[in-house]
Design brief:
The protein is α+β, with helices and mostly antiparallel strands. Helices cover about 20% and strands about 40% of the residues. The protein has a single domain, classed as Immunoglobulin-like (Sandwich). The chain is built from two helices and eight strands; from the N terminus they run H-E-E-E-E-E-E-E-E-H.
Length: about 150
């Protein structure tokens, strides 16, 4: 009987904690212009910087506490100051374009929004860039002499 009461107490506590989170009608709401950025096909070593633009559609300031890339090749930067209601902000993402091949990575954003954990994604293909061929010095002199 004691175990039953403990179990019911834990279920009730979980229910009330969930209900409290949902009941704040003024809570910040994070809304992204796009949740996936497609780099398309880019050259090896190309600019890997992109930005996710978002708006705080809630009635209280939005505070982003952390943004984490799914691997070391995806590095996010987020605003440290609160985003006022109705204001826009950006989360910058830098992907390491030295890595050849297709990629699909995620950035997990933690905040005080109604949905406290949000995942956005980047994807694309990095193609290898062949180094420019140089003419050996001997061949260059010979071709110049023939002219």
């Amino acid at each position: 009987m004691k175990k039953l009461w403990i179990s019911l107490s834990l279920v009730a506590a979980g229910f009330f904690a969930f209900a409290q989170e949902e009941s704040n009608p003024n809570a910040p709401v994070i809304k992204f212009n796009q949740e996936t950025i497609d780099y398309g096909t880019i050259d090896q070593g190309a600019d890997g910087n992109r930005e996710f633009v978002f708006t705080n559609e809630g009635k209280e300031p939005l505070i982003i506490t952390k943004a984490t890339g799914s691997c070391g090749c995806t590095v996010p930067t987020w605003p440290r100051e609160p985003i006022a209601p109705g204001e826009k902000g950006t989360i910058k993402v830098k992907y390491d374009t030295k890595r050849i091949g297709s990629f699909s990575k995620s950035v997990t954003i933690n905040s005080n929004a109604t949905n406290p954990v949000k995942v956005v994604r980047i994807k694309g293909v990095v193609k290898k860039v062949e180094p420019a061929k140089t003419v050996p010095e001997k061949e260059e002199k010979t071709s110049m002499m023939q002219k």
